[in-house]
Amino acid sequence: MKLRHLNHCLSALLPFLLLPLAAAAQDAPEPERWNAKFQATYIWQTKPGFGAAYSGVNSLSPLAEKSYSFTSTAYLGLRLARDTELYFNPELVQGVAMSNLTGLGGLPNGELQKTAGPNPTLYRARLFVRQTWNMGGEGGEREAVASDANQLAGWRSKDRVVLTAGNLAVTDIFDSNAYANDPRTQFMNWSFLTHGAYDFAADSRGYSMGAALEYYTGDWAFRFGRFMQPKESNGLALDRSLLKHYGDQYELEKGYTLAGRQGAVKLLYFRNRAIMGGFSDAIANAAGGVPDIATVRKLRVKQGWGVNLEQSLGDNVGMFARLGRSDGESETYAFAEIDQSLSMGVSVKGSGWGRAQDTLGLAYARNGLSASHQAFLAAGGSGFFIGDGRLNYRPETILEGYYSLALDFLKNSAISFGMQYIRNPAYNADRGPVKVMSVRLHTEF
C-alpha cells in the first residue's frame, strides 16, 4: 500500500517537477536550418523650386523636381554547420534621382544608388559566410538569437568571436545604430545612415567585398575589417588588389546602463588607401584656372574617425548622436561629399497615443568641408556630387522629420510621411533653402 501510495504521489507531482524543464525547452529555440525573409520599399519625393543666385554643372536644380526609388530584397540564409552560416541577398532596384543625384552633401534618399535608373536592375547585393566561435563554454552566459533578415534563429555565447567574409555592405557591421541606420524604415537622408564623413569602401550600389573580425566579451566589442575599394572614384567595379588598395576600419563598442536604460557608445577609425585626387594639388596644378581633381590622382591615404551614441530614454523613446570627421584632403571616393559631420535625433514609438507600431522621428544634421575642399569648390572645381561653379561657404544643415504609420490590414507594413528642410545646399549660402517632401511604402515578411 505504501509503495502504491508513493507511486500515485510521484505521478501527481511529475508534471510539476518537469515544468521548469518544459519551460526551458520552450525558451530554447531550435537552431534554424534555413530561413527566407523579404522586403520591398518605395520612396517618392518632391521639392518645390528655390532661390539660387547661380548654378553649376553639379548643382541641385532650382526648379521643382520629383524623384522615386524602388528596392526589393530577398534575404536567404542557410546553416552549413552548427556555427557556420551562409547568406545570399539578390536585390532588384530602380529609381530616378533629383538632378542626377547631385547638388547636396546630405542627399535626401538613402535608397537611391549612384547607378540608379528607370529600368529595373537585378544584382547580387550580398553573398557572405558568417563563422562564430562561442567562447563561454557549456556553463557560459548565452543569449537567444531571433529569426530575422540575414540572421538564423538559435543561441550564441555573449563571449564570442565572429568572422564575416564575402560580399556585403561595410555598414552591415560597422557604425550600426538602433535609431538611425536604415532608410527603409527610419530617417532617409544620407547624413543619418552613418557618419556623413565616413567614406567607407563601397561600389556605386553601396556594397563591397572583404572580411571583418569581431570579438565580444561582456559589454565590450571590438571589430576590424578590410574591404575592397572601387577601381575608380564612386565606380561600380571593385579593385581586387586588397594588399595595395583597401578600406580599413576599427571599431570599439561599450554597452552600458544609464538610469536603468540601455545605451551604447562606439568609437570608429577608418583608413582608406586608393588612387585619389587631392584638392590642394588640383588647385596648384590649375595655376589660377578651374581645378580638375582627375588630373592629380595618385596613391593617397585618407583617414577619419567617428563617435556614435545610442541611448534608450524610456520604453518607447530613444535618441542617437554621431560626430565624425575625415582629413578632407582627398576626394570623396565611395560615400557622401562630407568632411565633417554632426547628427542627432530622437525616435518615439506610438504607444502613448494608442498606436504602438507607429514611429515618429526627428533629427538634425550639420555637414561641413575642409579648408582645401572649400577652396577647390570656390575656384570652380567639381566633385562627384557637388560643384556650383562658385562657393559662398556655410555648413549645410538638415532637419528631417517622419511619421511611420503601421498598416493594420497588412502585417509588417507601413506608410511614412516625411519632410526635410535643407539650408545651404552643397555648403553654399547663395542657394536655397530646399524643402523635400517624402512618401514611403515599406513591407517585409
UniProtKB/TrEMBL annotation:
Residues 1-25 form the signal peptide. Keywords: Signal. It comes from the Bacteria. Pfam families: OprB. The keyword DNA-binding does not apply. The keyword Signal applies. InterPro entries: Carb-sel_porin_OprB, OprB_sf. This is Carbohydrate porin.
